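ugh ok fine here u go
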Amino acid sequence: AEPQAAPAPRAPAAQAPARVATTPLRGVAPSGRSLPARGDGRLRQVQAAAAAGANAQCIALSNGARSLDVLYERSWCAYNLDRPLEALAGFRAAERGGLGAEVQRDARFGMTLSFLAQNMTEEAARVAAATDLTQQQRIEVETIILDQRGTRAYEMKQYSRAIAFFDAYEQLTGTLRRDLAILRAYAYLNDGDRVTARQQFQLLNDQLATSETRNGLRAASR
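structure:
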């Protein structure tokens, strides 16, 4: 049978951590020398802007960063402004810059999120696997990785793999986002398991009846 069409999978966006591209990298001095770890007197201002969620102000205050600690703060602000390329470059510089074990770990967490924001799932997974992330950081990263792998497997018509990834997501978080739950139901349908597909569409429809769930129920009932 021809695969049943599901709603177009949405590319999942990485979520910014609670603590808290398109412009030139400010990670090196104009001469090309690597930045020192500390010494830029604007650090407190930049940190205050970042903590307040004033990301544009943070970027403005940290232009021409003269130390890696300022660049590190700037990288989170760039990430929060959907500038993952700039964020990734800054995190890489900060991770190597001798700012201490905690900042090194969090910079690698930022690298992982920046990769995920660009749907570079396997690159993110490699960094995460080599980093001693906190439990919360690991859950956040693994959730997005499972989301992206499941969505990609569905797009490639690897329906059993998609189901496995979505099941792992649900086991990790205790729930499954509604758009992914609909995609999983279609994966069951396209994998030939109409009974499970109908059960899942019915559950979703009972929770909230929409055109998507009604369409899925009709497709699973043919």
